[in-house]
């Protein structure tokens, strides 16, 4: 197997260093490499708040003002999350109900220390700066709501991902069994459900079996984010905890809701639960659903391999998810060992001439009489755009619609001389 996977550097500073070395060329503009080497580097979007600060003149200054960056000794940086106490400084706190829970009260040090933070980088050198840290998640000794006071709601937005129902179930059961909350509502069909549908009362009983089903029992949608209408409804219905499960688009929407809530001075906590099938979030170890997606991709690759082996010069072409991220394609490729070539959005390639994809295909067919190609759906968009005019069409959430790399490659391969 000779996989061709090259991802850009793994942090902002490295990216800047590379850009300087390249005379200002950005990582994504790196020249395509010929199909020979096997090289893997991983990059996930990082430092959201630091970026906001650095780009303060380019983006809104109001957004940059919400960024909570503090510095400590030896280059320690805390990139913190917004909190109710930022704009309600006198908000009272209460003992965490978990301390009376039979399963948790016996566990020493169950609660997370207020000051715990987690370093962004695990690998350091003797003299390196301590670097960026994030607030550690987990139950605190004191909480900001009394159980009886809580009126929580849960919404799922944007694209589907395996595990959504499991997350909904755990939120409902956790709130109910661990925090004694009994007013929990499901918002139907994404953001628009805040103002256009009934709120569904959910209990541990109603969500008991949902983790065995695919999709999201609450429904989801794209578009429909009307901040004012959403917050009006949250306020009118007395909701004070909002759990928002979704991808990057959804989290941008959650941030808008948070800003509006903060502007109105409401005691409403907004919690974003990151959902991405792509696993391209730097500040969590792994996103839920990613493993299932890679596992499912294996099945497609296995079948493509069987088909390719059964025909002389057979080529199995598997298109996988990944608009801007090659993690699913890359992990599935590395696990499979049957893939000859993996094309991902982060790594430019070219078709014709020395070191091009077509030459590589011919070489592999000569050597092996069959091959398997895995392609993430966002790969090669720049090349296709040269032969097919790319439209500016968008989905309801404003995401650009991609050109179909699968069909395009199939056509290119079919017209190869036999
Ligand atoms: N910049 C934004 N501001 C407010 N809402 C947004 C923004 N981007 C996306 N949304 C909303 O978030 C929801 C999900 O976004 P989408 O991009 O479809 O999926 P995902 O969250 O999976 O990336 C949609 O309802 C969309 O309207
Ligand atoms: O076909 P759709 O529904 O637009 O979604 C497909 C795309 O969504 C993504 O999985 C991203 O979604 P998430 O990161 O929010 O899970 C892309 O990588 C993928 O190609």
TrEMBL record:
<feature type="compositionally biased region" description="Acidic residues">
    <location>
        <begin position="9"/>
        <end position="23"/>
    </location>
</feature>
<keyword id="KW-0418">Kinase</keyword>
<comment type="function">
    <text>Catalyzes the phosphorylation of D-fructose 6-phosphate to fructose 1,6-bisphosphate by ATP, the first committing step of glycolysis.</text>
</comment>
<feature type="domain" description="Phosphofructokinase">
    <location>
        <begin position="152"/>
        <end position="387"/>
    </location>
</feature>
<dbReference type="GO" id="GO:0005524">
    <property type="term" value="F:ATP binding"/>
</dbReference>
<dbReference type="Pfam" id="PF00365">
    <property type="entry name" value="PFK"/>
</dbReference>
<dbReference type="InterPro" id="IPR022953">
    <property type="entry name" value="ATP_PFK"/>
</dbReference>
<keyword id="KW-0460">Magnesium</keyword>
<feature type="region of interest" description="Disordered">
    <location>
        <begin position="1"/>
        <end position="31"/>
    </location>
</feature>
<keyword id="KW-0067">ATP-binding</keyword>
<dbReference type="InterPro" id="IPR035966">
    <property type="entry name" value="PKF_sf"/>
</dbReference>
<keyword id="KW-0808">Transferase</keyword>
<keyword id="KW-0021">Allosteric enzyme</keyword>
<protein>
    <recommendedName>
        <fullName>Phosphofructokinase domain-containing protein</fullName>
    </recommendedName>
</protein>
<dbReference type="GO" id="GO:0003872">
    <property type="term" value="F:6-phosphofructokinase activity"/>
</dbReference>
<dbReference type="InterPro" id="IPR050929">
    <property type="entry name" value="PFKA"/>
</dbReference>
<keyword id="KW-0324">Glycolysis</keyword>
<dbReference type="GO" id="GO:0046872">
    <property type="term" value="F:metal ion binding"/>
</dbReference>
<keyword id="KW-0547">Nucleotide-binding</keyword>
<keyword id="KW-0479">Metal-binding</keyword>
<dbReference type="InterPro" id="IPR000023">
    <property type="entry name" value="Phosphofructokinase_dom"/>
</dbReference>
<dbReference type="GO" id="GO:0005737">
    <property type="term" value="C:cytoplasm"/>
</dbReference>
<dbReference type="GO" id="GO:0006002">
    <property type="term" value="P:fructose 6-phosphate metabolic process"/>
</dbReference>
């Amino acid at each position: 197997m000779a996989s061709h996977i090259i991802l850009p550097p793994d942090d902002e500073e490295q990216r800047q260093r590379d850009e300087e070395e390249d005379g200002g060329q950005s990582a994504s503009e790196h020249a395509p490499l010929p199909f020979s080497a096997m090289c893997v580097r991983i990059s996930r979007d990082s430092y959201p708040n630091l970026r906001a600060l650095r780009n303060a003149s380019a983006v809104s200054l109001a957004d940059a003002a919400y960024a909570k960056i503090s510095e400590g000794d030896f280059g320690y940086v805390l990139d913190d999350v917004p909190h109710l106490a930022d704009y309600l400084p006198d908000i009272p706190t209460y003992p965490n109900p978990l301390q009376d829970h039979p399963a948790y009260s016996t566990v020493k040090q169950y609660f997370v220390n207020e000051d715990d933070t987690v370093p962004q980088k695990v690998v350091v050198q003797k003299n390196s700066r301590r670097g960026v840290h994030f607030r550690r998640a987990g139950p605190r000794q004191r909480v900001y709501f009394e159980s009886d006071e809580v009126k929580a709601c849960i919404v799922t937005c944007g694209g589907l991902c395996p595990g959504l129902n499991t997350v909904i179930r755990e939120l409902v059961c956790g709130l109910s069994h661990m925090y004694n909350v009994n007013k929990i509502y499901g918002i139907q069909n994404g953001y628009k459900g805040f103002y256009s549908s009934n709120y569904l009362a959910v209990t541990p009983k109603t969500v008991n079996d949902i983790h065995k089903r695919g999709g999201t029992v609450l429904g989801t949608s794209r578009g429909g984010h009307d901040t004012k209408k959403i917050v009006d409804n949250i306020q009118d219905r007395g909701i004070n905890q909002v759990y928002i499960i979704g991808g990057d688009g959804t989290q941008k929407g959650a941030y808008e809701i948070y800003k509006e809530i903060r502007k109105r001075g409401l005691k409403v906590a907004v919690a974003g639960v990151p959902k991405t099938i792509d696993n391209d979030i730097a500040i969590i170890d792994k996103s839920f659903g990613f493993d299932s997606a890679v596992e499912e991709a294996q099945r497609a690759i296995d079948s493509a391999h069987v088909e390719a082996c059964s025909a002389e010069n057979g080529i199995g072409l598997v298109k996988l998810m990944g608009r801007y991220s090659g993690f699913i394609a890359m992990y599935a490729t590395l696990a499979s060992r049957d893939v000859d070539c993996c094309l991902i959005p982060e790594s430019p390639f070219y078709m014709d001439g020395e070191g091009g994809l077509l030459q590589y295909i011919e070489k592999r067919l000569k050597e092996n009489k069959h091959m398997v190609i895995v392609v993430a759906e966002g790969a090669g968009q720049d090349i296709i755009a040269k032969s097919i005019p790319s439209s500016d069409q968008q989905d309801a959430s404003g995401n650009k619609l991609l050109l179909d790399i699968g069909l395009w490659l199939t056509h290119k391969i079919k017209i190869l001389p036999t």
